[in-house]
UniProtKB/TrEMBL annotation:
The lineage of its organism: Bacteria, Pseudomonadati, Bacteroidota, Chitinophagia, Chitinophagales. PANTHER family: BETA-GALACTOSIDASE (PTHR42732), BETA-MANNOSIDASE (PTHR42732:SF2). This is Glycosyl hydrolase family 2. The keyword Cell membrane does not apply. InterPro entries: Beta-gal/glucu_dom_sf, Beta-mannosidase-like_N2, Galactose-bd-like_sf, GH, GH2_Domain-Containing, Glyco_hydro_2_cat, Ig-like_fold, Ig-like_GH2. Residues 1-21 form the signal peptide. GO terms for biological process: carbohydrate metabolic process. Coiled coil: none annotated. Residues 244-298 form the Glycoside hydrolase family 2 immunoglobulin-like beta-sandwich domain. GO terms for molecular function: hydrolase activity, hydrolyzing O-glycosyl compounds. Keywords: Glycosidase, Hydrolase, Signal, TPR repeat. It comes from Pseudobacter ginsenosidimutans. TPR repeats lie at residues 838-871.
Length: 896
């Protein structure tokens, strides 16, 4: 079993835009990374003012979006005794558009409060309070009394608050908890530690809240099922009683009863397709309650084409699903689009690119997004939001129950949208369990759509080895398709009778676009690295040529990653702010035309969406350097030059520009400035070093625990340790005592302590441990590991469970000293308190076993297997422990 560790400091930072204040409201957009063209059009008076539920629309409603009071308390608080300020609903707490931009911790509660006037209510009428979505747990109070409770970040809920209302002003309070990875609820790609493919959370109310007045007998919901072959549509009106209803649709007026299927003829149906997304109006009356809705006539199924290949058929016609992976994040609103126009824009842009399919990835959008997909003509693959689980751990019973509860609500809530043609049960084994059962449950619940039982059952790099094929087959039980993820180049998944072959994800080519990045400091990434826009176009065209050949062999769908950059991912076709496009729309459509005809109804979209073309060259870096040499020194220029110099690996220019920029900072303790200082301090001679070193507590108060020390450590290592290691620049001088195979740690420590005190000592001790294990100096390792851990390694943020696991495993493999092994067992026990996973449990078990504590070791190894039951290394170790055989390397083993 191979275990490796990597020491890294997470380099985070943010470019900023100036907040826009709305006079007289106390509201201001908070400075953030970048903004969209809609950011400054948002105000308390127009926050998502459209009716939020197009498929069950009433006239009599009151939008509750706007400014609310907010407070953050500990999670044991019974109420918020005071409120901190105003928040703009429905933008998440963490977003710039909320006007707050604060992170909600798992041990905290978020409180909302506002007053509203009692709606005019006739005798017998009811007042419903509706929420599009609240992340994750919401308890609602009206006039101090609990009105209801809901869990689930992605589904709507409605409460009858009639009995709690009083004349005049009424108080509405919402208490929210969002524990994210520390809870049991599906959270999508939200995380407490954003980076790579994981993003900033969206806590609290993130979709529209509204009131509506309804008769006592009213329509609770509608279930619409088109039947293209029989030219009918069946409507079930959900209500509390089997009251008489009238349905008007397709020129027909049909009477019936609630909760009973009503079949309505649709003569010569005009079928819904991406080319012609025709929608029929639907009006329903139940007593005094009247609602408007719509439907589309379409069907989707798996059939064989004229060559006998299993294909996706839309309305009895083979339709290749040419798609892209849309994650639904915004730099200003996070989960919430700034405006309804912006929400529609994304679908329009994707259509103008030439795609006919969107895979909505690990998120459920507001109802109006699906309405726009219906109107514009976009096929949608809708992901379920995977169960809450940490990688390397099994899904708990509670998390499974919550996943199935919320998935059932998603299936019900999204059933009527004709654009949705495919459900995706699981993605890349993220919390995957009972795949066959869950897939069949979805198919039984909704037999009108296809089900992808496991997108990315295997993840490959263009080649499909036998073990990956077996994995795909095993994880495609009851699925309508076999699916593989291949990065960057596309490939075919395993073939199975009766199932279509699809490519659930591929591509992800990265192009960095300065001034349009969520984080201009940290290096953005794409699969396979980052390239110029011109190179991206070449690679994209080649990948499409490959798809053309794979389509001939049976591929029926492909999903490109992705239409827009998202936070640190810069692998979108457009930038995160939706301002720049990396391949022109017309050229994308021409490339796609080789694979599948682009839809005919994109005309006019290109002019509407407007996007600037990214420079196709490698960089304009030489021009920036020339401007610097001519004396250009304004702050924004220096910041851009610093970032570009790092990208070009020009260390000399990077240092010059960064130091010039830092020296101009008027307030270095703003978060944006500290992020820059942290990321561009490489040496004690850099301008940012004294700011960090002389203000550790102040810096950590802004950036977080140990952030200052982490970067100071990095700089001191570069100055005081690396030059004195064998092969380092200072080793050329024999007088420093470091010319042998071992560093002169005593001299290095003396110099570091003289300059930096206890922090210098900590850095040297840490470096000595890591150097000794990497260089297999086991004598020094045994002497220094435990003293370092006891003094320093047990309380630093950057010394995580993964590093301690790797250090412990090296001891297990190499040491026979019982006293040393005992101390290391204490170290791995400490690591297990930080985070449990299969590998750490295995390391702890093996150490115990080597000490002769067999029964205790077996308990931990059994627990490791529960986390990762398919791990052959764990299975072998467990078997050897039971048999009393050594699990550590023996003479002649390659692993030693």
């Amino acid at each position: 079993m191979k275990k490796q560790w990597i020491m890294a400091w997470l380099l985070l930072g943010h470019a900023a835009f100036t907040g826009c204040a709305q006079q007289g409201t106390g509201y201001q957009v908070q400075p953030g990374a970048i903004q969209t063209r809609w950011t400054n059009t948002v105000s308390p008076s127009n926050a998502l003012k459209e009716y939020p539920r197009p498929q069950l629309q009433r006239k009599n409603w009151t939008n509750l979006n706007g400014l609310w009071d907010y407070a953050i308390t500990d999670n044991d608080a019974a109420t918020a005794n005071s409120y901190e300020g105003k928040i703009l609903v429905p933008y998440p707490l963490e977003s710039a558009l909320s006007g707050v931009k604060k992170a909600l911790q798992p041990e905290q509660l978020l409180w909302y409060r506002r007053n509203f006037s009692q709606p005019t209510v006739q005798e017998g009428e009811r007042v419903l309070l509706n929420f599009g979505a609240v992340g994750w747990e919401a308890t609602v109070y009206v006039n101090g009394q609990e009105a209801g409770y809901h869990t689930g970040s992605y589904t709507a809920f409605s409460l009858d608050i009639t009995s709690l209302l009083k004349k005049g002003s009424n108080e509405l309070v919402v208490k929210v908890s969002n524990p994210l990875e520390k809870g049991i609820g599906p959270r999508g790609k939200q995380t407490l530690s954003p980076g790579a493919i994981w993003y900033t959370p969206s806590s609290g109310i993130w979709q529209t809240a509204w009131l509506e007045t309804v008769p006592a007998d009213h329509i609770g919901g509608i279930r619409i099922t088109p039947d293209v072959d029989r030219s009918t549509v069946t409507v079930i009106v959900q209500a509390a009683s089997d009251a008489a209803i009238t349905v008007q649709a397709a020129g027909q007026t049909v009477k019936g009863k609630a909760n009973t299927p009503i079949a309505i003829p649709v003569a010569n149906p005009r079928l819904w397709t991406p080319d012609d997304p025709y929608l029929y109006d639907l009006a329903i009356t139940l007593g005094k309650d009247q609602v408007k809705s719509y439907f589309g006539m379409r069907k989707v199924e798996i059939k064989k084409d004229e060559k006998g290949i299993d294909r996706i058929f839309l309305n009895n016609k083979y339709t290749y699903n040419l798609g892209t992976l849309d994650q639904g994040f915004w730099p200003d609103g996070l989960y919430t689009a700034p405006t309804d126009e912006a929400l529609r824009f994304d679908i329009e842009a994707i259509k103008a690119m030439g795609f006919n399919t969107i895979r909505k990835h690990i998120k459920v959008e507001p109802a109006r997004w699906y309405y726009h997909a219906d109107k514009l003509g976009m096929l949608v693959w809708q992901d379920m939001v995977h169960p809450s689980v940490k990688f390397g751990k099994p899904v708990s019973k509670e998390a499974k129950a919550q996943f199935e509860k919320e998935s059932a609500e998603i299936l019900e809530q999204l059933y009527n949208y004709p654009s949705i043609t495919t459900w995706v049960a699981f993605n890349e084994s993220w919390g995957e369990y009972d795949q066959a059962r869950i897939t069949q449950w979805i198919k039984t619940t909704d037999p009108t759509r296809l089900v992808n039982g496991h997108s990315g059952a295997a993840i490959v790099d263009g080649n499909l080895p036998d073990h990956a094929s077996r994995e795909i087959i095993n994880k495609s039980v009851n699925s309508d398709m076999t699916d593989v993820h291949s990065y960057p180049p596309p490939t075919l998944p395993a073939k199975m009778p009766g199932k279509v072959m699809v490519l659930g994800e591929f591509g992800g080519i990265g192009v960095q676009v300065p001034d349009h990045q969520w984080d201009d400091i940290a290096s953005g990434w794409g699969y396979g690295g980052t390239v110029s826009a011109g190179e991206m176009k070449k690679r994209y065209a080649l990948m499409t040529d490959s798809l053309v050949q794979q389509e001939k062999r049976g591929l029926s769908a492909s999903i490109y990653t992705q239409p827009f950059d998202v936070e640190s991912e810069q692998n979108g076709i457009m930038t995160y702010d939706r301002e720049m496009i990396k391949i022109p729309f017309s050229e994308l459509r021409a490339i796609h035309q080789k694979l599948w005809p682009t839809t005919r109804n994109y005309a006019g979209l290109t002019a509407h969406i407007k996007a600037k073309m990214v420079d196709t060259g490698t960089t304009g870096y030489k021009d920036l350097v020339a401007a610097y040499e001519k004396g250009k020194r304004d702050p924004s220029f220096l910041r851009q030059l610093t970032v570009r110099a790092r990208l070009e690996k020009d260390k000399e220019m990077r240092t010059k520009a960064a130091n010039d920029y830092i020296r101009q900072m008027k307030d270095p303790f703003q978060e944006r400035n500290l992020q820059f200082i942290k990321n561009f301090t490489y040496s004690a001679s850099d301008a940012g070093f004294p700011i960090l070193y002389n203000n550790i507590a102040k810096v950590n108060a802004v950036l977080g625990k140990d952030e200052a020390e982490a970067r100071i450590t990095y700089a001191i290592e570069n100055d005081e340790i690396k030059p004195y290691l064998p092969g380092g620049s200072a080793c050329k001088n024999p007088e420093n005592g470091s010319t042998g195979t071992r560093p002169d740690w005593a001299s290095i420590e003396k110099n570091a302590v003289k300059k930096y005190g206890r922090l210098g000592q900590e850095i040297v001790w840490q470096s000595r441990v890591l150097w000794s294990v990497n260089n297999k100096d086991w004598e020094a390792y045994e002497q220094n590991l435990i003293p370092w851990f006891k003094q320093f390694g047990s309380n630093r943020k950057w010394i995580g469970a993964g590093l301690l696991n790797s250090l412990g495993w090296s001891v297990f493999e190499q040491s026979t000293n019982p006293a040393f092994l005992e101390e290391v067992v204490k170290m791995t026990a400490h690591a297990l308190m930080l985070e449990e996973d299969a590998l750490l449990l295995d390391t702890h078990a093996n150490l115990l076993y080597k000490l002769g504590k067999k029964e205790e070791a077996l308990k931990y190894e059994e627990k490791a297997l529960a986390y990762d039951p398919g791990n052959e290394d764990l299975q072998k170790a467990f078997a050897k422990m039971k048999a009393g055989q050594p699990t550590w390397p023996q003479p002649g083993d390659e692993s030693k």
